[in-house]
């Protein structure tokens, strides 16, 4: 089977803050920005790669109840709703760059007991962004 990862979804609750983080802090391209009824779906991704992240408004999820919407908002505020793992060949350099751009640091670079070296940040919506060192 020939299957590849095309896109993954992360929630956002502030279009401008999301674009500023993913474009200006992480250096991703903004590939699409679709607005509808005051909401925005923003597609971003690393230059030169086909995989994308779609930043979506969770309130637009079909069939979502008010209780579910509230639970999602609470989890996003605590940073427990969604996450993504990224990778780089220069973890320490990327960490320094993100820290210098005032990204919210969750964990400085560390060698984990399960065999990876990584660090972690939160994006403006509270999503956990872990970055691992590539060998």
TrEMBL record:
Read off the SUPFAM superfamilies from this record: Glyoxalase/Bleomycin resistance protein/Dihydroxybiphenyl dioxygenase
InterPro entries in alphabetical order: Glyas_Bleomycin-R_OHBP_Dase, Glyas_Fos-R_dOase_dom, VOC_core
Could you name the domain of life of the organism this protein comes from? Answer: Bacteria
Ranges for domain VOC: 4-134
Q: Name one Pfam family in it.
A: Glyoxalase
Annotated protein name in UniProt: VOC family protein
Q: Which organism is it from?
A: Amycolatopsis thermalba
């Amino acid at each position: 089977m020939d299957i590849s990862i095309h896109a993954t979804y992360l929630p956002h609750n502030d279009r401008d803050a999301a674009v500023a983080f993913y474009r200006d802090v992480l250096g991703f391209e903004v590939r699409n920005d679709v607005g509808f009824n005051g909401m925005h779906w923003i597609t971003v991704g690393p230059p030169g790669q086909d995989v994308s992240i779609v930043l979506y408004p969770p309130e637009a999820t079909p069939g979502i109840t008010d209780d579910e919407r509230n639970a999602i908002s609470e989890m996003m505020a605590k940073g427990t709703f969604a996450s993504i793992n990224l990778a780089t060949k220069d973890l320490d350099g990327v960490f320094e760059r993100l820290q210098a751009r005032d990204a919210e640091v969750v964990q400085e670079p560390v060698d984990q007991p399960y065999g990876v070296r990584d660090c972690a940040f939160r994006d403006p919506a509270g999503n956990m962004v872990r970055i691992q060192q590539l060998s």
